[in-house]
Write a structure and sequence with these properties.
- One of its GO terms (molecular function) is GTPase activity.
- Involved in targeting and insertion of nascent membrane proteins into the cytoplasmic membrane. Acts as a receptor for the complex formed by the signal recognition particle (SRP) and the ribosome-nascent chain (RNC).
- Its main location: membrane.
- By secondary structure, this protein is α/β, with parallel strands linked by helices.
- It has two domains: 66 residues, no CATH class; 190 residues, Rossmann fold (3-Layer(aba) Sandwich).
- The chain has twelve helices and eight strands.
Amino acid sequence: MGLRETLARTRQLLSRLITAKTLNLEELEAALISADVGARATAQLLERLSRAGENPQAALEQEIIRLLSGTERGNRPAPETPAVIMIVGVNGSGKTTTVGKLAHYYAARGRRVIIAAADTYRDAAAEQVRIWAERAGVAIVHSQKGQDPGAVVFDTITRARQQQFDTVLVDTAGRLHTRQDLMAELEKIKRVCSKVKPGAPEEIWLVLDATVGQNGLRQAEIFHQRLGLTGIIITKLDGTARGGIIIPVVIELKLPVLFVGTGEGLNDLEQFNPQEYARALIR
């Protein structure tokens, strides 16, 4: 499923109002809020539309692109190998699935990928990530339930350095952002990464479920405060009419959205492109 199909529900919500003969800003405001664009971004979009002239659709598209500009960046891991990418998120955000898709994404581009199965809490976690690693055709360092996740990460990065892997993907346990002890454990994993390889992890990406809407912003704020996030991956856009959530994520957090999940398949992960997103949201 592509981004355009993924955003169909949100686009239907907005396009009817934008293309109407008479633009009703109050109705459009309600629709934008409903799509989780957020109050701040909605106000900016409406202000731009109020002086749009004869083509509000094009004006809205260009304003969305402007709001999202300046966050684009390369999605390739850092050139110093092995690049260590730590993936974090709350329970049920689609984190492990995203790790599998990222493994496939990078492997398909010629990188040697290894996964650190550092989610040692859930019974099914090790098996789930093993299946994804197998599907993606990448290596994995397995873990046992209750094992110290830091030890798994240590072993994985050590092996990656010895065996010339390009990319380490660290799959961490999902956790509530309000649990101080669990957030402290993520900080420990981050420290372990840097002990094995100075400067690691080069990337810390938060997987954010689009269906949770504005609550996701608070999650992201706390993860960012504790860990220093370098990017966001938005998942489950295909299951919601809240496709506007990407806009406040970028505006409020000043963090780039790197990828969007567009379905359950191995290939259903796309690099985020502001122009394509704005077009798929509006037209």
